[in-house]
Amino acid sequence: MTTKRFKRGDHVSWNSEAGRVRGKITRVVTSPTQFKGYTVRASGDEPQYEITSDSTDHIAMHKGSALTKLAR
Do residues 22 and 53 make contact, with C-beta atoms less than 8 angstroms apart? Predict the structure, then answer.
């Protein structure tokens, strides 16, 4: 399975409980780390992405498979 790859600064969207959200990737995580009390099981082969929402400044962490890259 091919993993979607993104880089810091990419503008993306994802589904949340509140609907479709847009934001900018602020960090690419490639090793296990703690985020909001949870262990994020990221790796070099399957990175996860820290994203800041455009509308609320909420910070979220998602796998690449949950994200869609947006045109600028």
Answer: yes
What is the average pLDDT score of the chain? 92
pTM: 0.89
Q: How many CB atoms lie within 10 A of CB 57?
A: 8
Q: Which residues contact 63 (CB under 8 A, 6 or more apart)?
A: 46, 48, 49
Q: In the 3-class helix/strand/coil scheme, how is 16-69 assigned residue by residue?
A: ECCEEEEEEEEEEECCCEEECCEEECCCCCCCEEEEEECCCCCEEEEEHHHCEE
Q: Which two tokens stand for residue 5?
A: 């790859």
C-alpha–C-alpha distance, residues 50 and 67, integer Å? 11
